[in-house]
Amino acid sequence: MSEQSTEPRPTLEAVAARAGVSRATVSRVVNGGDGVREPLVERVRQAVEELGYVPNQAARSLVTRRHDAVAVVIAEPETKVFADPFFALQLRGISKELTAHDSQLVLLLTEGRADHARVGRYLAGGHVDGALVFSLHLDDPLPGLIHGVPTVYGGRPGWSDGSRGAVYVDCDNRGGAREAVRHLVGLGRRRIAHITGALDQTSAVDRLDGFRDVMVDADPKLIAEGDFTPAGGERAMRELLDRCPDLDAVFAANDLTAVGAMRVLRERGRRVPEDVAVVGFDDMLPFTEQADPPLTTVRQDIEEMGRLMARLLLRGLDRTAVASGGLAGAPSSVVLPTTLVRRASA
Predict the structure, then answer these.
(1) pTM of the full predicted structure?
(2) Measuring CA to CA, which residue among 199, 200, 217, 221 is closest to residue 208?
(3) What is d(CA 32, CA 57) in angstroms, rounded to the nearest whole number?
(4) pLDDT tens-digit profile of 231-240?
(5) Strand partners, 168
(6) Which of 3, 108, 175, 225 sits a CA distance of 20 to 30 A from 63?
(7) 274-307 residue pLDDT tens
(8) Taking the chain, what is the end-to-end CA distance rounded to the nearest angstrom?
(9) CA distances from 338 to 65, 306, 326 (A)
């Protein structure tokens, strides 16, 4: 068994002695303070490196009022989070940006209503510098529970009263849906169905609105509600085929829904795209390329959305301009464009 080192950890005083400066000077340099001449800064940094000094995070937080940690709150149960590649892509973007700024990611999931209060207490306890929140549902109490915590949302929040401002990152859901349906119309399809996402989320509502923008006189029977899952796509596709067996195209609210719909079409003997053309939304690679057939879809840059969420939050924190849970002085919300990616399914 190897022996553990019993040497004491280097202290702030040891660094000050090695650099030939005061303890206060070392503290300012280590904690990113101003007012220290560059030659002294270099001496302190050299002493830190030579001694292997690691700042005490708790003490540093008292000085800087920062924890170098950001909570990522996903308003979904873990069974959905770990089954949907959308969340992995967004988390990857967030993690890359936080890592580049030497900040830690703290992941919080909400399995049920009891978890909302737990998450709210944790955020209010001052353990993190701010929060990134996504996959909110319209009746979600989280925004009220985290009031006062600097927050950036993934997706446009659906505040019913319109009185609360919010910084968010989203894609052009409505415009992307319009482009998808216009593509199907351009292929000569006339009985175009839509499988929605969960309609208590703004992304699903916006995509439904985009469908209706193009299919103004669409038969209501050609719209079936899904929930952004393959199982929801299967269930909705069966409903649509039973109601409207002559449909010749489907716009699905996301790629997982589209794959579930194609599975049912195959079971019912419908060829894609010869009999029924299918378009999804998200373009989650390599998932869409490996679909059978490869899926035509609307691409949103999910990883970039995660990076932008983290960047907006960190930029607001760096300006130390926080007001009522919003980020005063921070950039306004960002809506990213979408692009239609044509493959074999339509």
Answers:
(1) 0.78
(2) 199
(3) 13
(4) 999 999 999 9
(5) 153
(6) 108
(7) 999 999 999 998 889 999 999 999 999 999 999 9
(8) 64
(9) 39, 15, 27
Between strands 339-341 and 296-299, the pairing is: antiparallel
Residue 90 to residue 75: CA distance in whole angstroms = 14
Nearest residue to 107 (alpha-carbon basis) of 129, 125, 124, 132? 132
- Six token digits for residue 102: 């030497």
Confidence check: pLDDT of 114 > 90 = no
Distance from C-alpha of 307 to C-alpha of 288, rounded to nearest angstrom:
22
Contact 14, 53 (CB under 8 A): yes
pLDDT in tens, 228-263: 999 999 999 999 999 999 999 999 999 999 999 999
Mean pLDDT computed over 17-29: 80
Residue 344 DSSP code = T
Which amino acid, 7? E
* Strand residue runs (E) in the chain: 69-74, 104-109, 130-134, 151-154, 167-171, 192-195, 223-224, 249-252, 277-282, 296-299, 322-323, 326-327, 334-336, 339-341
Which single residue is written with the structure tokens 């067996």?
245
Closest Cα partner for 148 from 121, 168, 170, 169? Answer: 121
